[in-house]
Amino acid sequence: MIHVSWLIPALPALAFPLIVFFGKRMPGKGAEIGIVAVAISFVMSLIVMGHFVANGNARPEEAGFTWFDLGGFSLQVSMFVDGLTAVMFCVVTFVSLCVQIYSTAYMHDDRRYTWYFAALSLFTTSMLNLVIANDLIQLLVGWELVGICSYVLVGHWWEDKVNSNAGIKAFITTKTGDIPFLFGIFTLIAATGTSNMHAINLGADQGAIGSGLLFAGALLLFGGAIGKSAQFPLHVWLPDAMAGPTPVSALIHAATMVAAGVYLVGRLFSVFVNAPHFVLLFVGIIAAITMAITALLAMVQDDVKRVLAYSTVSQLAYMVAGLSLPDAVGYTPGLFHLFTHAFFKALLFLAAGSVIHAVHSNNMSEMGGLRRRMPLTFGVFLIGAAALSGIPPLAGFWSKDEIISIAFKSHTYWLFAFTLATAVLTAFYMTRAVLLTFLGEYRGHAEPHEAPLAMAGPMVVLAALSCVAGFLGPTHLFAHWVHFFGEPFLIEPVDYGFAAISLVGAAAGIAVGYGLYRRWRDPDPLRKLGPAYTLLERKYYLDDIYERGLVRSIQYPMADAVDAVDRKVVDGAVNGVGLTARGLGGLLRYLQSGSVQRYAVFLFAGVVILALIFTRVT
Amino acid sequence: MIAAISSQEIAFSVIAVVGIISALRLVTTKNVVHGALYLVITLAMIGAAYLVMAAEFVAWVQIVIYVGAIVVLLLFALMLTKAPIGREALDNQQRGISALVSLAILAGLVFLVLDAFRTTTFSPLQQTTTAEIGQDLFRHYVAPFEVVSILLLAALIGAIAIARKDES
Amino acid sequence: MIHLWLPLVFSAALFAIGVYGVLARRNAVLVLMSIELMLNAVNVNLVAFSKSVKTGIAAVGATAAAGQIFALFVITVAAAEIGIGLAIVILIYRNRESINVDEVNLLKW
Question: Does domain B1-117 have CATH number 1.20.120.1200?
Answer without folding.
Answer: yes
